[in-house]
Amino acid sequence: MTTTSPPPSNSASASSGAPLLEVTNLSTTFTTPRGLIRANDSISFTLRRGETIGVVGETGSGKTVLGRSILGVLPSRYTTYTGSVRFQGTELTTQSRAELAKLWGSELSMVMQNPMTALAPARRIGQQLADGLRHHLGMSRSEAKAEAIRLLYDVRIPDPERRSKAFPYQLSGGLRQRVTIALALAANPSLLIADEITTALDVTVAAQILDLLGRIRDERAMGMILVSHDLGVIATRTDAVKVMYAGRIVESATTRALFASPRHPYTEALLGSIPRHSHTPHTPLNAIPGAPPNLGRLPVGCSFAPRCAYAQDRCREERPELVDDGTGHAVACHFPRNLPGSSVGAGTNEAVRVENKTAKVCEERNAVDVSVATGSPAAREGGT
Ligand SMILES: Nc1ncnc2c1ncn2[C@@H]1O[C@H](COP(=O)(O)OP(=O)(O)OP(=O)(O)O)[C@@H](O)[C@H]1O
Ligand code: SF4
Ligand SMILES: [Mg+2]
Known about the structure:
The chain is α/β, with parallel strands linked by helices.
């Protein structure tokens, strides 16, 4: 697959230059007592510096496995990788664990959904940051302590010197998530994978954290992969989107193109399941019927066929491959929707809805910026 992205819409700085990350036909298989599970199947994409790629898909579609496969952090005794992951021109899949470990945290970082699992509960957060800085950057104890406080300041933690002495349990969820971001950014990585980092946060804190990440990405020309269930976040914070289903990318496009004219019936259904302001009370949500498939026993043909409203005989016999139309919009479907010049699908409705959602998020962002600037209560969080 080729991804020839037009100029990014959500990054302040244009992504350019040689690819930071090139993933080609990456497949990840687990050997389990219940048989083989192919959690990622033939994944390909390219990420440039300053660019953010969003990854969406239902639970179990392989999003977290993708992030972990790129980093090579899955348990080696029962995980098999095939394909290629090139980071700044270096092939990662053939590196030893010791060689990869030198890149973890320094060049490649991942922030997970649950900050408590990333933080040592019995160590003060300043100490944890300083440990990382001494390990990765060889700083002295006093340098690392000062840098840890600067990092807490960078992620907009109020009163960072005092907070650096706190234990994780003494901080609110939002502050803890900021600490994990500070940890992930400590050694100035070139690639950050953020996996559902705002799922547990309220909308204001989530907006602050995403603003912060966007600013840091632009300042440092970092590449970012943003995994999220929240389509509003994906619509407003990413340049391109990969939609995953049953371990595969089933649609790939610029964010604008994907939301304006989704081509895969699964993408169309995902967008259609967003609650709308125009819904009257008790309007049923457009849920996607059925359940995600068992990755150990995928149906022949298209994995989405049992749930697809447009499935035909061919879908149950022949697996659709991901095909790029030459503009960077790729879809794995025998009967795609919303093709240019086709009356199949209703993409313009989605475009209008996304524009509205984008405007709403921008309004919220502005409100937060004003609160931060004025120190009003909206900018403050709980914690110590
Ligand atoms: N270490 C592992 N060993 C065996 N199977 C695994 C392992 N990690 C993940 N899987 C399986 O791989 C599939 C994809 O899991 P993954 O965690 O990537 O899903 P996800 O898209 O991130 O879902 P969610 O939205 O719930 O986070 C699931 O079927 C999961 O059970
Ligand atoms: S290939 Fe067929 S079953 Fe699969 S998504 Fe397309 S129309 Fe639906
Ligand atoms: Mg996950």
